[in-house]
Design goal:
Helix content: 40-55%
Structural class: mainly alpha
Strand content: under 5%
Number of strands: 0
Length: 107
Amino acid sequence: MTKRKAKSLTLQVWRYLRDHPELDAKSKIPEKLYKQIEDCISRCPLCDLFIRPAEHCKECPLSVAGQNCNTCGSAYNEWTNSKPSTYGVRAKAAGMIVDIVKRWDVK
């Protein structure tokens, strides 16, 4: 997968999750979209590109201070750890992921 394709697909997934904060798992997005990510590492196109044990996700736009995207305080960590009733928190975290990925220069 190219960086451009990974960015596009990541944005599609996270925009959907931002707009549907009642969903608490990527597996709950529409089947057509899910089918595009189901074979990716962690169901994430960015993980498919950047997970390498030696680099520990450092090049991924969602990494935080050289750590992986699930580091405490990261937008992804906020989304995954939000309680089912905290739709606002989940929408905000997904929106932060969208904003970060939108700023990522794939060139």
